[in-house]
Every structure is written in C-alpha cells, then in structure tokens.
Design brief:
By secondary structure, the chain is of the alpha+beta class. Helices cover 51% and strands 14% of the residues. It folds into 3 domains: 112 residues, Butyryl-Coa Dehydrogenase, subunit A, domain 1; 108 residues, Butyryl-CoA Dehydrogenase, subunit A, domain 2 (Beta Barrel); 152 residues, Butyryl-CoA Dehydrogenase, subunit A, domain 3. The strands form 3 sheets. It has a 4-stranded mixed beta sheet. A hairpin with a 4-residue loop joins strand 2 and strand 3. The longest helix has 37 residues.
Length: 387
C-alpha cells in the first residue's frame, strides 16, 4: 500500500533499506552465530545520519518524529533484528534526554548520539523489577557532591557498548513509584561497571548486559527533570518508543514473508511449485494480510503521536502497536518456518533466526500482557460515566 509518505520520509526509508540490504544481509548470519555486536554497521548508520532521524535539528539531528523513526527501524528489522535492536536501543536511551533534559544536557549529549559517535541505553529493569517497575531497588542518594548510585540493572540493551545511560533509581523509597528519578550516567564513571554479556535465544548480535553501580557518584546536573519524575519520564518515553517496537515487528514479519514467498516460488513437490497449492497460498495470504494490518496500525499511531498535543492520550494506542505487531511477527515467522518445512528449521536459512528473534518483541519494553493491562485501564477511564 501507498502510505503517502513525504519525500523526506521516503529518503529515510530508502537509506535504511539500502544499508540493510547492502551492509547487513551478507553478515547477519555471522553476527548471530558469533554473537558479535555490529559496530561496523552502527558506524555506517552514524555516517549516514540515521541515528539523528528523530533528534531535533538544533542538536544535529534530522528533526523527525515517531513515524520517521519507525520507517528506519522497520527496514533494518526486515533484514536483521539484532542490528535493528542495537540501533533502536540508542534511541530509547536518548528519549528521556530529548523529552525532559535541560538545554545544557541536550547540548552535551544529543549531538554525539545523533552522529552515532556515542550510543545510548536505557536502564530500568532489575532482577526483581520487570513488569513491576515500581519494585526497583537501585537507589540514588543525594549528597553535597551529587548523587550516589547503588544497585544493579538487568538485561540492558546496548549494555557495555553504549557510553550514555538514562538510569531510573529511587531517590525516596517512602513515596513508592513517585520516589523514582532519572539520571544520566556516562560509561567510565567510577563505581559503574558491567556484568557478563548475556547469551540469548535471539537478537544475538545485540549486547545485553547487567549494569552495576557501587557508590557511583554522578553530578547533580545529571538529574533528568526533577526528583520524583522517574516513572513519568519512563512512561512518556515508552509511549513514544513502543511504536518502534511495533515497527520492528512489522519489518521482521515482512522479511519473513519475503523469504517465504521466494521459497514457495522455487520449491517443487509433486511436480509443481508449492506456491501453486491452495494450502500454501492460504498461509501466505494470512501472513500478508497480518503484515499490512500491523503496518497500517503502526504508521497511523506514529502519525497520531507526532501530531498529538496531549501526551496523556497516547498510552493506549502506543501499547496497541507494540502488542499487535509483535504478536503478528511471532505468528508470521512461525508460518514462514512452516512454509520452508524441514529447511526452515536449519540455520542455513534465515527464517529460523527470524522466528527466534521474534519472541523478544512480545517481552521487552513491557510484556504483551502488560500492554493489555495498559489498554484495559485506559478503556476503563475512557468509558467511566458513559452509559
């Protein structure tokens, strides 16, 4: 379908697609097998200006919004989720600074992120605080010299590779979720270290590590927003980045559909190409319909968020994009493996990796069960008092 993108949006889409096809496709299997962080591809993305897609022009970015980010993420995900997660993870880490950072913080950090010179990461999840984000134990104690951070963050995308981290920590535990605050922590700060690189089912090229804070002193000016705003910053960040997860689902599902159709046109059984069999056509038809429906939802919501003047109104539809598109990605990649049959189960073919990669989309940035909670709660508010 034609989504009537602007020339600038098409340029972003074409650029990301070019990088994905020419630079990523030939190395995606090797990166996955070696579990190697795609630094060379990140460098290429940086030189092409892709990291600055949604960063304001005054800080060296393109000045685009959620839709522009989704277009870039979708094209990278179409070829390799491990690469797209590494790219998108930097945008996630930059968003708290973009949304709530002081002018000084933005001038200091955003230009390097926009150019890809320094990657960013976001630190919320802990061993005992996943879906229950209010249970975080990492603390930030105010002192005369700044804030002392103590605690750990778990399963952090770009952990160890990124140089700029947006960290959520408790400044006043007695206030519950309202006692959380957000901070910028730079790699190399004394007291800040990393755990081992996790070995994962999928997205193996991306780096996932534990962040460890032991009396890590950061300056007072590294507080993002005000004390107690940590969860507001987190939720507003996710509202704008969850469509990007939806775009990952769309891209991954489209890539799996591409591979499945290509294979079905070549594979012969009973003297015919298998694409001529109605059973196969029906599977492919369902896959294509689901992909297009997910794309339509992601693009529509992204446009809505970019034009919305009330950020409180976007949580429901943002959660819908993540929920629907990630479920589509799981179904479509599973069906792609089925089309390939036994070959689809072999690492020699890309759909095996795609199916492994798809699962994380239903888990990170809030599980799909949490998304249903968010959507349900918003519906309750919406219909309160209505007959």
């Amino acid at each position: 379908m034609d989504y009537f993108l602007t020339p600038e949006q098409r340029m972003i889409q074409d650029l990301a697609r070019k990088i994905a096809v020419e630079k990523v496709m030939s190395v995606r299997a090797e990166l996955d097998e070696k579990e190697e962080f795609p630094w060379e591809i990140m460098r290429i993305c940086g030189e092409a200006g892709l990291f600055g897609v949604s960063i304001p022009e005054e800080y060296g970015g393109f000045g685009g919004g959620v839709l522009e980010n989704c277009l870039a993420v979708e094209e990278l995900s179409r070829v390799c989720m491990g690469v797209s997660v590494s790219y998108a993870g930097s945008g996630l880490g930059a968003h708290p600074i973009m949304l709530y950072g002081t002018p000084e913080q933005k001038r200091k950090y955003l230009p390097d992120i926009a150019k890809g010179k320094r990657l960013a990461a976001f630190g919320l999840t802990e061993a005992d605080a996943g879906s229950d984000a209010g249970a975080i134990r990492t603390t930030a104690t105010r002192t005369e010299k700044g804030y002392l951070l103590n605690g750990t963050k778990q399963w952090i995308t770009n952990g160890g590779e990124a140089e700029i981290y947006s960290i959520i920590a408790m400044t006043d535990r007695s206030k519950g979720p309202r006692g959380a605050s957000a901070f910028i922590v730079e790699k190399g700060t004394p007291g800040f270290s990393f755990g081992k690189k996790e070995k994962k089912m999928g997205i193996r090229a991306s780096a996932t590590r534990e962040l460890i804070f032991q009396d890590c002193l950061i300056p007072k000016e590294n507080l993002i927003g005000k004390e107690g705003m940590g969860f507001i910053i987190t939720m507003r960040t996710f509202d704008r980045t969850r469509p990007g997860v939806g775009a990952q689902g769309v891209g991954l599902a489209q890539g799996a559909l591409d591979e499945a159709v290509r294979y079905a046109r070549e594979r012969e059984q009973f003297g015919k190409k298998i694409i001529s069999f109605q059973a196969v056509q029906h599977i492919l038809a369902d896959m294509a319909t689901q992909v297009e429906a997910a794309r339509a939802l992601v693009y529509s919501v992204a446009r809505y968020i970019d034009q919305s003047e009330n950020p409180k109104e976007i949580s429901k539809v943002s959660g819908m994009t993540k929920l629907f598109a990630s479920d589509v990605a799981m179904r479509v990649t599973t069906d792609a493996v089925q089309i390939f049959g036994g070959y689809g189960y072999m690492r020699e073919y890309p759909v095996e990796k795609m199916m492994r990669d798809a699962k994380i989309l239903q888990i990170y940035e809030g599980t799909n069960q949490i998304q249903r909670n968010v959507i349900g709660q918003e519906l309750i508010k919406e219909y309160a008092g209505k007959k």
